[in-house]
Amino acid sequence: MRRLRNVKIVATLGPASSDYQTIRALFEAGADVFRLNMSHGTHDDIRARHVIIRQVEADTGRPIAILADLQGPKLRVGTFANPAGEDLVDGAAFRMDLDPTPGDIHRVQLPHPEIFAALEPGASLLVNDGKIRLLVDSCGPDFANCTVTVGGTISNRKGVNVPDVVLPVAALSAKDLKDLEFACELGVDWLALSFVQRPQDVLQARELARGRALILSKIEKPAAVKAYDAILEVSDGIMVARGDLGVELPVHSVPPIQKRLVRGARAAAKPVIVATQMLESMIESPMPTRAEVSDVATAIYEGADAIMLSAESAAGKFPIEAVTTMNNVAISVESDPTYRQIIEASRNVARSTVADGIVAAAREIAEATDIKAIAVFSQSGTTVNLVARERPRVPIIALTPLMETARRMCLTWGAHCVITEEQERFKGAVISAVRAARQHGFATETDQIVLTAGVPFNVVGSTNILRVAPCDERLIYRADPE
Q: What is the mean pLDDT of residues 95-107?
């Protein structure tokens, strides 16, 4: 099954998309990666969806990536004596403390001493996705006296965001530690790490994963934006998680931040997902708004590797229609001549290795001559990411003997992943590549492809060969006799 666009689509599974027929229909509509949200559902629910995805993969013969999204530490207020909560008005005094007594109009418990340890006067506390805003007047190790700057109804267990300080809170809660081990044992391909603040958060997750899954850092905290370069360096991929980012930062600052994060990940040759509220209205409506379509298109024009659906496909009324819409928008955008102009104008790569030079040459040869595809042999997927960073005009055929690598590459821009036999000789690799190009509809017997590989074969990081190959196997044998 060949996609007619390069950007990948991530679809979150949930109550609206948990049976075989729906998940297969989502894949056929365009989903390349399925997200399992560890914030919702039991381990049994997650396991059942994982089994179905792998069955769809086997039935369709195409690798599918699975992304497990860890919940991260959730900061919430305690409970109120009034079950309906209390109405806070602008200018009123309100206190948060460690006292477990049910709250009232004057105070409520905030059962997170680590927040009080980090607070300073002048800091902001945002409650219920920023609908209520509090300014800290004074604070101590067990309290914060605040003034309400934006009022509203505060009720049981509402979430709290602290945008102004780096909290001494680990990115992995006790629940996350259990979920991470469960997901790795299950065999997911990517782990998304929520509320990353510093590179150490990523390194902790990487140590626990032990290579069983790649680590994708969600950028949704101001501290993560400030430390982005360091976080990117130790991550395998990035998610621009615009939901919490838009709560903790002025909403007008999110678009330029999104653009910077996407370009940074591309320059580092690491996959980047743009996520949250992309087709939000399709939770209830079969048609998106024009603004939502424009938002999806903007992420594609910026060069994102993937665009993501959350509640639209997990709990919405029209999950298949939402994926179909994303697929159609992507095809339309990538067919626009302006898209190529923007993508090529933003190609800004500091090339310093042999592999960098080879993939750049492969793109230039493919675009300067009548080449139908770039075929890449890769053990780890690194070279495929380097080719994708170039955003070539021709398709990328990612060849690997490792199923886990093929699945992980499903998140990479333009990568059409194909499982192939292990190769010992370069001629065998060439023949395998041209057969894949013809079998999957990228070329005919009269066409040519560009091939990159590394000799010796089956060694990570050994890319050192570029070859223009005819797709007629007789010509290959004639040029390279045994």
A: 97
List the catalytic residue out of 76, 175, 260, 263.
76
Residues sharing a CB contact under 8 Å with residue 240, sequence separation 6 or more, in sequence order: 219, 257, 258, 261, 262, 272, 273, 274, 275, 304
> Residue 19 has what pLDDT?
98
Give one DSSP letter per residue of 401-441, joined into a string: S-HHHHHHGGGSTTEEEEE----SSHHHHHHHHHHHHHHTT
pLDDT tens for 48-97 read 999 999 999 999 999 999 999 999 988 999 999 999 999 999 999 999 99
DSSP tag of 453: E
What are the structural domains of the chain?
8-73+171-337 (3.20.20.60), 86-161 (2.40.33.10), 354-479 (3.40.1380.20)
Active site residue 3: no
Q: Is 35 a catalytic residue?
A: yes
pTM: 0.93
Q: Are 272 and 306 in contact, with CB atoms under 8 Å apart?
A: yes
Beta strands at 107-109 and 93-97: parallel, antiparallel or unpaired: parallel
Residue 218 is a catalytic residue: yes
- Is 76 annotated as catalytic? yes
Q: Exposed/middle/buried for 315, CB within 10 Å: 0-12, 13-18, 19+?
A: middle
Out of 181-190, 334-343, 434-443, 455-464, pick the least confident: 455-464
Q: Among 35, 372, 389, 438, which one carries the catalytic annotation? A: 35
